[in-house]
Task: inverse folding
């Protein structure tokens, strides 16, 4: 699949390279349904999808950074993309998951990993939609919050065709931790 060319302002936001790589593919498969950007922060990844014409529901506990970014970019070439972002305040640790079955065209989850959300991701992504997950990098003590080797593959391979999966060992040799980048397409029937 051909990679999209993004507005220089998008690049200024420093979106994930993995998001840039697969954004067009994710948008094409979303079938007009919104993409959920989980733990969106200031929207650096959400703007990639909205600039490609997709609606994005930006989920985070604190939406201040996203609001400031939307305001800043509303007077630029990204004003149309800014309008396609819908902020949704949610404490991902405490609040109930608000999205129904097959409601999302895809889910993007970058630098925030909460395995308790995995069953909700599976349910909320429409068949044929994509899940993109990228863990935090393995810097400093980050390895303490990273999954074990094979953990994410095992969590998603039943319901998703993993089209891209990369693990990298991090942390002390005695500690089983990996960074993960994955792109999975929701299977038509997972049972």
Result:
């Amino acid at each position: 699949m051909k990679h999209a060319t993004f507005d220089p302002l998008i690049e200024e936001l420093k979106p994930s390279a993995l998001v840039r790589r697969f954004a067009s593919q994710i948008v094409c498969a979303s079938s007009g349904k919104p993409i959920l950007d989980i733990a969106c922060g200031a929207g650096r990844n959400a703007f990639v999808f909205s600039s490609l014409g997709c609606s994005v529901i930006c989920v985070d506990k604190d939406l201040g950074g996203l609001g400031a970014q939307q305001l800043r970019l509303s007077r630029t070439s990204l004003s149309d993309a800014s309008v396609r972002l819908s902020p949704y305040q949610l404490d991902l640790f405490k609040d109930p998951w608000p999205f129904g079955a097959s409601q999302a065209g895809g889910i993007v989850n970058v630098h925030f990993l909460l395995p308790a959300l995995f069953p909700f991701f599976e349910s909320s992504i429409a068949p044929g939609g994509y899940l993109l997950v990228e863990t935090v990098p393995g810097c400093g003590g980050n390895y303490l919050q990273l999954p074990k080797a094979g953990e994410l593959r095992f969590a998603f391979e039943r319901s998703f065709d993993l089209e891209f999966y990369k693990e990298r060992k991090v942390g002390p040799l005695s500690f089983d931790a990996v960074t993960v980048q994955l792109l999975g397409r929701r299977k038509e029937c997972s049972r």
The beta strands are 35-38, 56-60, 85-89, 104-110, 125-134, 160-170, 177-186. The longest strand covers residues 160-170. The helical segments are 8-12, 17-29, 46-51, 64-73, 79-83, 118-124, 151-156. The two ends are 29 Å apart (CA to CA).
